[in-house]
From TrEMBL:
CDD domains xrefs: NAT_SF
InterPro entries in UniProt: Acyl_CoA_acyltransferase, ATP_grasp_subdomain_1, GNAT_dom, NAD(P)-bd_dom_sf, Succ_CoA_lig_flav_dom, Succinyl-CoA_synth-like
Residues annotated as signal peptide: none
The protein's name: Acyl-CoA synthetase (NDP forming)
PANTHER family reported in the protein's UniProt record: COA BINDING DOMAIN CONTAINING PROTEIN, PEPTIDYL-LYSINE N-ACETYLTRANSFERASE PATZ
GO MF term (any one): ATP binding
């Protein structure tokens, strides 16, 4: 891809405005002259160190005639005008490739974070062009430029030389520079969405139905009026739009400096700001944010939310996947004090890796519920990296499992999403799984207890005797005061006496106002009507009411499980993670790719070398082609060896018995050879591929795998070796940074984990060595993206140690940086 295409990016400025950053073009000369005429004399002086009223022909030549490697010039365009430029040019006299870098920003655009964005993109381009360091020389009064370098997070130490301030620093990304970029990205994207939801004047937000023939004219008028965004509403149906139609829609909006919702958006709502551009009535106010996309699904979700009485802070319908995405809204929610519960109903996502990154951060701060994320993420496997097409995709269930482990709740029914929202908005989060289920019906109490057990809760069933209403309230009050109970579900059955449901509802509602650490939930069965819920707002201290007790218990279970996941996901000082010789591994893989740019499988020797760099030692083996060679190999190992057929068709197939163990002499080896050779022929294999290895102690055989998924990046899996685990999907998953407790969870959460605990009298496995191998494989996969597939099998987990008996790896030429190091939309 040409640099002018690869480096072009739409970016969000600090105030939420939209601009386009791209390499300079030969046709930009007149636009650069006009831009320079709008720059103040002071800014010109700080840029050129002297009075410089006009650009000279030489200036324009240096800016425009660049080779896109040793010299690069970027321009930032807002509403068709160049408002800033940045440049680097290689300088001589340095040991490493070092470039002089400079910026010029139009004065009325200062304070919008433009120089920071230009530096991020120049540094990323420099890294692509093998530039190692940036150098800059500034006048002492140019303090803002000095701060731009310091605050970017690089290792910058300004020095005073000959009356000038100089900086000379490496442009390799650091943890601090990444954190700075992500923090600025969050603020800018949050501000962009906040501007849409809080228009300061009537012309800030334009609302129109989508007509491709007149859309550009509408955008022109919106830009002339100083609008910040446009909502393209659905007009009775979702239009059938091609991918090119959507790209054109986005391009047109961004050329005019506008954020756009649509085509076919249902609209947006900000209850506290009194803004409602949807056809729906204004929902009650609350702390629940709701994001949807297509107008049809948006109508379904919003109508359910209003019907259920969900208190909304903001509602955003993005319409057909175009400009504003779930990533933008997640960034806004993270910065919005009025939103504590975040509901995402996704048809697709923008940048899927960014989605996962920002979602993980949000889930540790606020309650997040996502409706079937694997469906949306699966549709987003489109990343621009050409190497992506060579990657394996994780199973959709893995995507959901990893998102759950990050602290977000995954649901498969939208009603469950609103059940969770109601419970979280109205009552405190339960501290554990102990739930009291109370009813005036013994049958109902028993059924509620059985349902609670089915959802992984620990129920205590209590049946009220005597007066149903007063008895229910008395027992509920006692349960709320009982420290051995974490949550209370109270249900009343109105069998014959009218008015009991209403009375019980009033009493439980009063009790709900007193709950602080323990949720109270009501469910009512009968023929009487509940009092109408006419509160203007939804808030803590209200009674969540469920028509079906099973829905209430499922919601409780999901919340408790999610709190456990959030606690486990939070980093702790004592966390132990894998590590290895990262630079050596990257250099070795890069050397292999230099001679095999299309990628390939690593040889056994290469695989063993890479694993040793991360402290994993393969059991030695020798491939042999004749019985005589096998005998020599066995003698070198001192006998007690294994002979096995490593044909690819037999990998991970222990039921085919392609291994003979504990071979002690040449006669036993000859028998084993004949047996495996006949078996190979019986299976119709095209070759007999024997190897000789020392015998290792017995144990449970695992397969440990790590891949580069197009959506999540590095993801590891563990399962019992063999096709049964594959077919039944009995695997557990983890993503970096994988800690020892995560590796332990991966082992013990397998349905077949009983095999590791000592099944049918076998000794239990020692898990610590296996945990170490899992952590190291995960760290290796995280450190070396080009290792797109790692598989260790069999991994034998014994009572005393873990032995890695076989392994394979595959490499592909993909970008070493999984997430962009410079901000861009999507």
């Amino acid at each position: 891809m040409k640099p002018e295409l690869r480096w072009e990016a739409d970016v969000i400025l600090n105030d939420g405005g939209i601009a386009t950053l791209r390499p300079v073009q030969p046709t930009d000369r007149d636009a650069l002259i006009e831009f320079y005429s709008r720059v103040s004399d002071k800014s010109k002086y700080l840029r050129f160190f002297t009075t410089h009223p006009e650009l000279t022909a030489q200036d324009l030549t240096e800016w425009v005639e660049v080779d896109q490697r040793d010299q690069v010039t970027l321009v930032l365009i807002e509403r068709e005008d160049i408002v800033a430029t940045a440049r680097y040019a290689l300088v001589s006299g340095h040991e490493q490739r070092t470039a002089d870098v400079s910026f010029l920003v139009q004065d009325d655009h200062h304070g919008r974070g433009i120089a920071n964005i230009l530096l991020e993109h120049l540094a990323q381009i420099g890294r692509e062009n093998d530039v190692k360091r940036f150098f800059a020389e500034m006048l002492t009064q140019n303090r803002s430029m000095v701060q731009t370098f310091i605050r970017a997070g690089y290792s910058v130490k300004p020095e005073l030389e000959d009356g000038y301030i100089t900086v000379d620093f490496p442009i390799d990304p650091t943890d601090i520079s990444r954190e700075v970029m992500e923090r600025r990205e969050l603020r800018a994207e949050a501000t962009s969405i906040r501007r849409l939801l809080n228009p300061a004047q009537d012309t800030d937000l334009v609302i129109a139905t989508y007509n491709p023939d007149t859309f550009d004219e509408v955008l022109d008028q919106a830009a002339q009026q100083g609008a910040r965004g446009i909502i393209s509403l659905a007009d009775g149906h979702n239009p059938a739009l091609t991918a090119q139609d959507l790209r054109d829609f986005v391009a047109q909006a961004r050329e005019h400096g506008l954020r756009a919702l649509g085509p076919a958006s249902l609209g947006i709502i900000n209850t506290r700001g009194g803004l409602n551009t949807t056809p729906a009535p204004m929902p009650r106010t609350g702390n629940v944010g709701l994001f949807t996309q297509s107008a049809g699904i948006s109508t379904l979700a919003l109508s359910h939310a209003i019907e259920r009485g969900v208190g909304i802070s903001t509602f955003i319908s993005a319409g057909a996947f175009a400009d504003v995405t779930g990533n933008d809204v997640i960034q806004f929610w993270a910065d919005d004090p009025d939103t504590n519960i975040c509901l995402l109903s996704l048809d697709t996502v923008g940048n899927p890796r960014k989605f996962f990154r920002v979602l993980r951060r949000l889930a540790l701060e606020k309650q997040v519920v996502v409706f079937i994320p694997s469906r949306a993420l699966k549709s987003a496997r489109y990343l621009d990296d050409p190497g992506i097409s060579t990657l394996n995709n994780a199973d959709p269930s893995a995507l959901d499992a990893v998102i759950r482990s990050s602290g977000a709740m995954v649901v498969t029914r939208r009603d469950t999403m609103f059940d969770l929202a109601q419970l979280l908005a109205r009552q405190p989060v339960p501290a554990g799984r102990r739930v009291a289920v109370i009813s005036n019906s013994a049958g109902l109490s028993e059924q509620m207890a059985q349902s609670a057990q089915r959802f992984g809760l620990n129920p205590r069933a209590i049946t009220v005797t005597g007066d149903p209403v007063s008895g229910l309230l008395e027992v509920t009050t006692a349960a709320l005061a009982d420290d051995s109970i974490d949550a209370v579900l109270s249900g009343l059955v109105e069998i014959s006496t009218a008015g009991q449901v209403a009375a019980a509802h009033r009493g439980l509602s009063e009790l709900a106002t007193t709950t602080v650490h323990k949720p109270l939930i009501g469910t009512f069965v009968g023929f009487g009507d509940l009092p109408e819920d006419d509160a203007d707002t939804e808030h803590l201290g209200q009674l969540p009411v469920f028509g079906n007790y099973a829905d209430a218990l499922e919601a409780l279970s999901l919340i408790v499980s999610n709190e456990e996941a959030r606690a486990a996901a939070r980093p702790q000082p004592e966390d132990e993670v894998g590590s290895g010789r990262r630079s050596a591994a990257r250099e070795f893989v890069a050397s292999l790719l230099s001679s095999s740019p299309a990628g390939r499988e690593l040889s056994d020797v290469e695989t063993a070398h890479v694993l040793r760099l991360y402290g994993i030692n393969l059991i030695p083996w020798q491939p042999v082609s004749t019985l005589a060679e096998a005998i020599v190999a066995a003698e070198e190992y001192g006998w007690d060896v294994v002979l096995k057929n490593v044909h690819p068709a037999l990998r991970g197939r222990p039921e085919l018995s392609a291994v003979v163990r504990h071979i002690g002499d040449s006669a036993e080896l000859a028998t084993a050879w004949n047996t495996l050779e006949r078996m190979s022929a019986d299976l119709g294999l095209d070759a007999f591929s024997p190897v000789v290895q020392p015998t290792v102690p017995p144990g449970t055989t695992l397969t440990i795998r790590a891949i580069e998924d197009p959506v999540l990046g590095p993801i590891s899996s563990v399962g019992i070796a063999g096709p049964i685990s594959e077919l039944l999907k009995d695997k557990s998953y983890g993503v970096p940074p994988l800690r020892r407790r995560d590796a332990h969870r991966m082992l013990t959460s397998l349905a077949a984990s009983e095999l590791l605990r000592g099944h049918r009298g076998t000794p239990p496995a020692l898990l610590e060595p296996a945990e170490y191998v899992i952590m190291q494989v995960n760290a290796l996969k995280d450190d070396v993206p080009a290792l797109v597939e790692i598989e260790l099998t069999p991994v034998i987990v014994g009572a005393m140690d873990t032995a890695v008996v076989g392994a394979r790896m595959r490499i592909a030429d993909i970008d070493t940086e999984r997430d962009p190091l410079a901000r861009r939309l999507r």
